[in-house]
Amino acid sequence: MNLANRITLARIFLVPVVCVILLLHYNFGSFTLNGQTTTGGEVIAAFIFVLAAATDGLDGYIARKQKMVTNFGKFLDPLADKLLVSAVLISLVQMQRLPAWVAIVIISREFAVTGLRLIAAAEGVVIAASKFAKWKTVTQMVGMVLLMLNNFPFSAVHVPAADIMLYVMVAMTVLSGLDYFLKNKQMIQTPHAS
């Protein structure tokens, strides 16, 4: 197994680590700013989440740079991303920091775009990540970290950054999903009988 695939596997193995630390409330201390409490466990989980998310770009870069792109890696990389995002979203719902409808919208979009990519792949077409998709990923990562940290450090200045990012990530999720389907509608249109 090459280095890029090992990094991708490491991202998958970090998924339960993040969730366990978030949900089992280990006593790593806590601090409160303006009535908002953030625990040491949440800080550690957010750090591991950021580390895991950062490996997404790293494994792809290494695979391309060292010409180690494999079918296993092409399959595993997007799966690892979806596992990480879905697991953290569901954990945030469990923690009552994220409305369930937001998690449903984001996870549904991920499945829909994956389905579109599978249809395209069957036709020999590769659908590259769009600019919207890249911005969607950035807003999701920032939003989820703020939610994991219970709006720290913005709670100190009474700025609801986590709530704002929640709506930004939903908007970017929907827009990027629409963008994929509008640009690739020929993949899902029923062929006309001749």
From TrEMBL:
InterPro entries: CDP-alcohol_PTase-I, CDP-OH_P_trans, CDP-OH_PTrfase_TM_dom, CDP_ALCOHOL_P_TRANSF_CS, Phosphatidylglycerol_P_synth. It is a multi-pass membrane protein. The chain crosses the membrane at residues 12-31, 43-62, 83-105, 164-182. It is found in: Cell membrane. Gene3D superfamilies: 1.20.120.1760. The keyword Lipid metabolism applies. This is CDP-diacylglycerol--glycerol-3-phosphate 3-phosphatidyltransferase. It comes from Alicyclobacillus hesperidum.
